[in-house]
Amino acid sequence: MKINKINIKIAYFFMAVMVFSITSCADELAELNEDPNAIQDLPYGLQLTEVQLDAAGGRYEMRRVALGWGISAIQQLADVNIATSLLPGDKYIDFIDYSYALYDRYFIQECKDVVDLVARTADDPEATNYNAMARILKVMSFHKVTDMYGDIPYSEAGQGFISNTWFPAYDRQQDIYTDMLNELEAAAAQLSVSAENPGSQDVIYGGDITKWKKLAYSMMLRLGFRLVKADPAASESWVKKAIAGGVMTNLDDVAKVEHEIGGVTNPIGEAFLVDKFMRLSDTFVSWMQDHNDPRLDILSWVESGGSHQGLPNGLDPTTLASSGPAGGDLLDYSQVNPALVQRDSPSMFITYAEVEFMLAEAIVRGWHTGDAETHYNNGVRAAMANWGFYGVAAPSTGDVDAYLAANPYDAANALEVIGEQYWAATFLNPWEGFSNWRRVEFPVLTPVNYTGNATGGTIPRRMKYPIVEFSVNGDNVNAAIANQGPNEYTTRVWWDKN
């Protein structure tokens, strides 16, 4: 569903006219006249639309953090620039202003909108579904931020205009995850087909309550698996609860926002519109070539007309010219197919393919019954079909059948093959791709060790807090560092265990 973004940043609009009336005795003030057409309350549906569109993000944080760091750190994109370091995650260069862009943008805009919607609808019996949807959206947004930074403001975040809490404390990620999972469980139970429905103002599912329940439990499945190394018992419990609740079952359940030119545009599309230097990583292209993957012809476009060729991570213009597999001309290296990164391309939050791969993993771990191979195959088929949402022809059934025959599920290396397919399936969803790779560390990647890098030649594990936090909220950010570890790219967040 496509919709123009409505400017609803001003929550209330009051208009009053002071009228002076003159009597024969004396001048006196009259009562204020109230405009019957003034907006006394912001409709829940309009704010729900705003929150959903905000959740897709903007070019600022998508370009700097998701693409600049996340997708290049897991070697799906590459870049040769040094002076501007358009993809600092390619060489692990310390471009801290890129690193904190998500934090910067989120707590200024997206956070306060979703927190306000949850608060406004909490005690209104007519807003049952609005509140449940807002709670799910809040989890979807906050988990993206905490996965990138670790400990962050959570319980007091967005409370400035609600309770005058302008310097929020940082919550431990462990506590954030506990609350987010509880929120998903409560929101799923709260959703009701008999309560008021937002209908078309819900731009993700059009008010389909069944799909919202599936989204809540699918998010619970994702978050439950994040805990697998940090708290295996809790991970197992939440994964089982999510599956029992009912997760996504087909492509129609995919959680996404459609975009349109002239309205709210796709932030990845905006980034590619202005950046002509990003290329597909040689790691990613070679993996698809080694597996004879039909997605390669969908994802890769070589401007010079040559064959698909990924750009190795960690090169600069000099080393590209001397050792680049296709020489020193960037036009000979694979770009992302422009058809997939348009301003009106969809934004994906969580897909059916991801859910199928997680179900396969749950079976491998003994947390779910069924056939892991079947779910693995379902995941591969869904991941390939998912590109149809971008307006391109997805691989045919025959091509996918041939791919699975040549690359069958390998029970002896189950977590590895599932992890690799999940990595491929989350291309162009850098937030999830980077986070899940840190959880499973498949595929096995060879780090780069570019001169002067900020990690000692290891793949980054988190982003840095903004410098300004140490000036305006120093006590709280320093308390987070004391709990979590140094404000460095190599410090692991709570769930990211060795």
UniProtKB/TrEMBL annotation:
Signal peptide feature range: 1-26
Pfam families for this protein: SusD-like_2 (PF12771)
Keyword Transcription regulation: no
Keyword Signal: yes
InterPro entries: SusD-like_2, TPR-like_helical_dom_sf
Domain of life: Bacteria
Alphabetically ordered keywords of this record: Lipoprotein, Signal
UniProt-recorded name of the protein: SusD/RagB family nutrient-binding outer membrane lipoprotein
Taxonomic lineage of the native organism: Bacteria, Pseudomonadati, Bacteroidota, Flavobacteriia, Flavobacteriales
